[in-house]
Amino acid sequence: MSTLLIASHNVMNARGLKALLPAYVRLHRDHKIGALCVQEHVPKAGTRIASALGPSFGVALHQAAPRLAIVYDRSRLSLRRLTAITLPRLQRVPLWQRTYSSAAPEQKHALVANFSPPLTMVNFHLDAAGDNEHRTAQLRAFASALPLARTPLVACGDTNAFTLRRSDAEAALASVLRPLHLRHNTRDARAKQPIDTHFFARANEPRFGQRLAVTLGLVGIDMPRRYDVICSNIPMPETGQLCTPASDHDLVW
User: Fold this and answer.
1) To the nearest 10°, the Cα dihedral for 25, 65, 13, 241?
2) Which long-range contacts (CB under 8 A, 24 or more apart) does 174-178 make?
3) DSSP assignment letter at 78
4) Would you place residue 178 in the very low, low, confident or very high pLDDT band (cuts 50, 70, 90)?
5) How crowded is residue 236: how many other Cβ atoms within 10 Å of its Cβ?
6) What is the pLDDT of residue 209?
7) N or C: at which end does the chain have fewer Cβ atoms within 10 angstroms?
8) CA distance 198 to 248
9) Dihedral pair phi/psi, residue 121, rounded to 5°
């Protein structure tokens, strides 16, 4: 397979999708997107992204995992199989986390696309609620469910791997990703040059905790962390990131 750019973006429920579309178009113009993994997908968001990128783009959606989508260039990739893996679910959401998350535990999934030329792509979104031990269990679940990789594997998404202390952040993220590395020999593309990808101050959503974070951001208070990752078992010659203020997550590729 020739070089293929794969990107990942949490679109924050597409609340600012109109402002995000030019960023996707710009990335495609400069680097030719092969696939874009979308988290917090809502109806028609993937179709709007595909339309902005051009007529060769399609959207891979699975009814069991409607909050995930993969927008891909059909002139370069042919979708052979699409499956959804159910991830471990919290028994309850702690009271304090209900200020920014739903009160009822959310069922999370990983979306697995098998393409031709041979490529397995996994799009995932781990829980914002719970702790990093729970998120590690979620990642371990889909890593274990995937057959041992004999062809190129790319797994990307939003880990939500938060730590209160910045000094603990990268070690915690590496720990969450370790099951994928151990089973499939993947590498985190940005581990050696980590850059924050999530910003609470940009979480322009209706829950109290999110409104508070935006208000604190107005006076320069934020706790950005690197949540968004791209991992692969093949060499990644180049990586990048686009600042996207219309989402609380930057786009990574």
Assistant:
1) -40
2) 175/132, 175/136, 176/126, 176/132, 176/135, 176/136, 176/139, 177/139, 177/229, 177/231, 178/136
3) E
4) very high
5) 16
6) 77
7) N
8) 6
9) -120, 130
Nearest to 200 by CA among 216, 186, 185, 178: 216
Residues 6+ apart with CB under 8 A from 60: 69, 70, 71, 72, 79, 82, 111, 113
Give the model confidence (pLDDT) of 229-250 as tens digits.
999 999 999 999 999 999 999 9
130 token code pair: 């719970």
Q: Which amino acid is at 36?
A: L
Instruction: Give dist(CA 213, CA 192) in Å, integer.
Output: 29
CA angle 233, 59, 144 (to 5 degrees): 35
> pLDDT digit string (tens) for 91-138?
988 887 788 888 889 999 999 999 999 999 999 999 999 999 999 999
Q: How far apart are CA 241 and CA 228, in angstroms?
A: 10
- Return phi, psi of residue 39, to 5°: -110, 155
